[in-house]
Amino acid sequence: MDYFCGPLTLYTRDKIRLIDFLSDVFEFDVDTQSDLISGGTYSLQVVESPNDSIVNSDSISFLFELKNSHELEEIINKFNFFLYRNIGRPHAFEQISIKKESEISIRDLDGREWKFKSRAALL
After folding, report:
1. End-to-end CA distance of the chain
2. Could you give the C-alpha distances from 63 to 77, 82, 87, in angstroms and in order?
């Protein structure tokens, strides 16, 4: 049996910034007509919500398993480039934390946590 995930709806305060974040840092494919973001067998749909009570994302987290620590470094570099591209824009909510040599965590502007671990750390 094959399963596909999506589209999972992500509510956000700033649709353009979240789409930029997901495409820059994670290299997800973006369909700007439908605001669908995809990577592999899953897809996400970004919906802007002016109501902050709907955007209660700090309890949501994602975990991605990477092949090695070099891929972690690549994610860190892409995140730093995303921040550099957005220097002039207000509200720098995105944060990165390096938990261990083989694990990082990134929070997006709505508080969702995107975790990355190298495969060696999961064994």
Report:
1. 26
2. 19, 20, 27
Q: Residue 91: its pLDDT value, please?
A: 60
Other Cβ atoms less than 10 A from the Cβ of 35: the count is: 19
In whole angstroms, what is the distance from residue 35 CA to residue 30 CA? 7
Average pLDDT, the chain: 82
How far, CA to CA in Å, does 118 sit from each of 54, 78, 97, 103?
Answer: 33, 16, 15, 7
42-48, strands of its sheet edge to edge? 5-12, 42-48, 36-39, 29-31
The helix/strand/coil state of 100 is: strand
31's tokens: 């369909």
Let me know: does 118 contact 72? Beta carbons within 8 Å. Answer: yes
Q: For 9-65, what is each residue's pLDDT tens digit?
A: 888 888 888 999 999 998 888 888 888 888 777 788 888 887 765 656 667 888 989
**Across-strand partners of 64?**
116
How is residue 41 written in tokens?
């067998």
